[in-house]
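# nightly structure sweep
# worker-07 picked up a monomer target from the shared queue
# config: single-sequence mode, recycle default, output format = structure tokens
# input follows
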Amino acid sequence: MFDYAICEIAGKQYKVLPEKSMEVDCMGEEDNKIEVAVLLLVKDGKVQIGKSFLKDKIILKRLENKKGTKITVRKFHAKANFRKAIGFRRKLTKVIADVKN
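# output follows
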């Protein structure tokens, strides 16, 4: 088991802790297990840093897909009677590190 790892998930870097869930950008609906590339791995206090990536892979288990908090964007043009409001909710995937592997 590892202490923590820095992984690249969907083009972004996240700190992955064992048995702690986290929200990442939407990973689609295909698999319940997601294999991610590891940039840095700390195991028993020893740090391993890869030249771009390590050979080790971490398996993430998908818990659920959901939407994030709503963001409202408002546009306004002065003296033109123009007002517009647009809402946006980011799609997220909640994952947890599968430490059995």
